[in-house]
Amino acid sequence: MRDFLNGLDNLHEYLRYSYPRMKAPSFICENETSQGLTLHYRSKRKGFVYYTMGQIKEVARHFYHKEMKIELVKEELLLDMIHTTFQLTFDNRAFTLTSLAMTTEEKHLPISASILFEIFPFCVVFSSDMIVKNAGNSLVALLPDMVGKRLTNWFDLVRPLITFNFQTVSINHNVLASFL
Predict the structure, then answer these.
(1) Is the distance from CB of 91 to CB of 112 less than 8 angstroms?
(2) Are 25 and 52 in contact (CB under 8 A)?
(3) pLDDT per residue over 23-73, tens digit each?
(4) Angstrom distance (rounded) from CA 70 to CA 145
(5) Among 28, 57, 91, 120, which residue's beta carbon has the most beta carbons within 10 A?
(6) Residue 89: phi, psi to the nearest 5?
(7) Are the C-beta atoms of 39 and 5 separated by less than 8 Å?
(8) Backbone phi and psi for residue 148, each to the nearest 5 degrees, phi listed first
(9) Cβ atoms of 84 and 77 closer than 8 Å
(10) Cβ(30)–Cβ(73) under 8 Å?
């Protein structure tokens, strides 16, 4: 269940190619424990909060055989976007198992940065103060002056629907980001 919830933004991004006029919502998970998590739902479309709650409960029941309690904690209008916070309570022992696995010592891949920048030609490496430290080969060819400058001088974050700063981007590292 946790992988499904953490992957909702990526699922909607994939569907965007089949439905280009779709105004996809954004889902962000935080405060994950073995008993559940907090889910932030952001959408430019009004009236889908209870539909979303029902869909999540039904996915949990039908596909994961889990009972889920969903509490609507907060709902606010931010400019043209609805931001809803849900508290999801369910058996999330998978989180505990993943946390334990991540604490074991992991070996780093013996691969150089230059190879990574070839494999991912449009990637960006930036510091906590949003200064671009390096970028993929194709991106550097298109924007040769971007290294050493603030990332926000070059791009706006389109997806996910979050504030464009280091803290929120690093928290949502598992979500595909779209820049404009």
Answers:
(1) no
(2) yes
(3) 889 898 889 999 999 999 999 999 999 999 999 999 999 999 999 999 999
(4) 48
(5) 28
(6) -115, 120
(7) yes
(8) 95, -5
(9) no
(10) no
How many whole angstroms separate alpha carbon 3 and alpha carbon 92? 10
Looking up tokens 């889910």 gives 39
By residue count, the chain amounts to 180
Q: Which two tokens stand for residue 82?
A: 């609805």
Kindly list the distances between the CA atom of residue 153 and the CA atoms of 122, 130, 132, in Å, as whole numbers in the listed order: 17, 10, 10
pTM of the model: 0.67
Identify the DSSP state of 90.
S
* Alpha-carbon span 50 to 36, nearest angstrom: 19
Cα distance between residue 162 and residue 157, in whole Å: 8
Burial label for 139, CB within 10 Å (0-12, 13-18, 19+), is buried
Report the C-alpha gap between 146 and 57 in whole angstroms: 44
Q: Tokens 């970028």 belong to which residue?
A: 135
